[in-house]
Design brief:
Cyclic Phosphodiesterase, Chain: A, alpha+beta, 5-stranded antiparallel β-sheet, 4-stranded antiparallel β-sheet
Length: 220
């Protein structure tokens, strides 16, 4: 029961319905599947990000916060809360065909590769195409839960920033910086699990919370 006192007595029925609806639990969660990045690798990537930031005008790029450095395997968008458990079960089945894999973060690139860059990223790869196969398995296991289109071409990466106001001069600066970082390695690590994240869009930016951690392990 809602008790209204003083000025709140004149609260309209429409405003009251909004007040009550705001207190109800959400019906959907904004989810994505990703590989976490170790703190030591994040720190090395952040150094390069800061170096690059100093070469570009303020406001030309929306930079990714270092605590959000991760490799997205599948963006799911809004998924009904009651389906989250079934989604997690599907992801567990998909991961049973994999064992831990060693990956490496290195070099800086852009999307698109030609013309004015829109996304600035650090490459993440491994030698045996297991990362590509894992991405494909996750796409297949989640397709019934979302309406997002599938990705035919997968390029593992950690997003450094998204361009907002890039002109020819800034584009040339980015290209030169990437050329200098062509042989740069930010670190290697062994991926032992994937994570299902919830993303909440708040006034101070997106906040990511781990919903489920799923190990990479073949059944014995």
């Amino acid at each position: 029961m809602v008790v209204l006192r003083g000025k709140r007595r004149n609260l309209s029925l429409h405003s009251l319905s909004i007040l009550l609806s705001d207190s109800s639990p959400p019906k959907f969660q904004r989810l994505f599947v990703a590989l976490a990045t170790p703190d030591a690798v994040k720190a090395e990537i952040e150094k390069a990000q800061n170096d690059l930031r100093r070469t570009l005008p303020d406001g030309s790029v929306r930079w990714t916060r270092p605590d959000h450095f991760h490799l997205t395997l599948r963006f799911l968008g809004n998924v009904a809360v009651e389906r989250t458990e079934s989604l997690s079960d599907n992801l567990r089945l998909a991961c049973q065909g994999f064992t831990p894999m060693k990956v490496r973060a290195g070099r800086i690139g852009f999307f698109p590769e030609r013309g004015f860059p829109r996304v600035i990223w650090v490459s993440v790869c491994e030698q045996n195409q297991e990362l590509v196969r894992l991405h494909r398995a996750i796409q297949t296991s989640t397709i019934e839960f979302i309406s997002e289109p599938t990705e035919d071409d997968f390029a593992g990466h950690i997003t450094l920033g998204r361009a907002k106001k890039i002109r020819r001069k800034e584009s040339e600066t980015l290209t030169g910086f990437a050329t200098r970082m062509r042989d740069k390695t930010f670190g290697e690590w062994t991926v032992t699990h994937i994570e299902l994240f919830r993303s909440e869009l708040l006034p101070d930016g997106a906040h990511h919370t781990v919903v489920t951690t799923i190990p990479l392990e073949r059944p014995t």
